[in-house]
Write a structure and sequence with these properties.
77% of the residues lie in helices and 0% in strands. It has 255 residues and is mostly helical.
Length: 255
């Protein structure tokens, strides 16, 4: 009986959490410009009108460009940092990891204001490059934590064997280490890209006169309720969920 109650509670909570997304999907394809139930019909018209909206294609391009840049740079820096922390013998490695994770503990609003003040004090013009820098600082700790977690259970005997056979450090990494941890690195990169694509607060403070999909959606909301908002939000959700699902499959423990 208790088992059934737990399943029922889980079903209720799951339904409560996913219901807003289902409503978003329904209204994105609703033929009526009014957000009300029952639906009068289904259409792709709002997606077509969204594509014709001024600034949409530019915002989509900016979102993809920022997401890809943040994913690549964060993964490179985070992976190198994770290897340094995992292979180093310093007793302060745990402290270093905690320090690197500080951006994850600070509210995004505070980080956004901090980046805005910092870039302004340096005379750095706001724009895509500023957003990439800010998001790299904020998101690369996620890569560090994921890769460090994977390396904590890594069998270094294979690496030692390769070195004993005369392989250089670089050749050992390419032929032995990287193939083993590649799914984890790719998964971490996809998680960072998904979070970057979905970010609004830090982007809002650093993007300047440009737009991404979340900031474009914010601008549309300020002008009133428009069914194109649902279409735009559904695109963001779809990209984020796709990257997240692939990342979770790649980063799951092979054991």
């Amino acid at each position: 009986m208790n088992h059934r109650l737990l399943w029922a509670a889980a079903l209720v909570v799951g339904t409560f959490m996913i219901l807003p997304l289902l409503v978003l999907v329904f209204f994105a394809f609703s033929s009526s410009p009014l957000l009300r139930l029952p639906l009068e019909g289904l259409t792709f018209n709002w997606f077509l009108r969204l594509a014709e909206t001024q600034g949409f294609l530019g915002s989509l391009t900016n979102s993809l460009l920022i997401s890809a840049s943040v994913g690549i740079v964060s993964t490179m820096i985070g992976t190198l940092a994770a290897f340094g922390l995992s292979t180093g013998k310093s007793r302060f490695s745990g402290t270093y990891v905690s320090i690197l994770a500080l951006p994850l503990m600070v509210p995004p609003l505070v980080l956004g204001i901090a980046f805005l003040s910092y870039f302004s004090s340096l005379g750095l013009r706001l724009g895509l490059h500023a957003t990439v820098i800010a998001q790299v600082v904020t998101l690369q700790p996620i890569v560090v934590l994921i890769v460090v977690s994977r390396l904590s259970g890594f069998d270094w005997a294979a690496v030692d064997s390769a070195r004993d056979l005369g392989a250089s450090s670089w050749r050992t990494f390419i032929d032995v280490t990287f193939p083993i941890i590649r799914p984890t690195i790719l998964g971490a990169a996809l998680i960072v890209m998904a979070l970057s694509l979905d970010d609004f607060i830090i982007t809002f403070f650093t993007i300047g006169g440009e737009n991404t999909l979340p900031t474009l959606l914010w601008g549309m909301m300020r002008k009133g309720i428009d069914p194109r908002m649902n279409a735009c939000a559904l695109i963001v959700v779809a990209f984020t969920l796709l990257l997240g699902v692939i990342a979770l499959r790649l980063t799951r423990n092979p054991d």
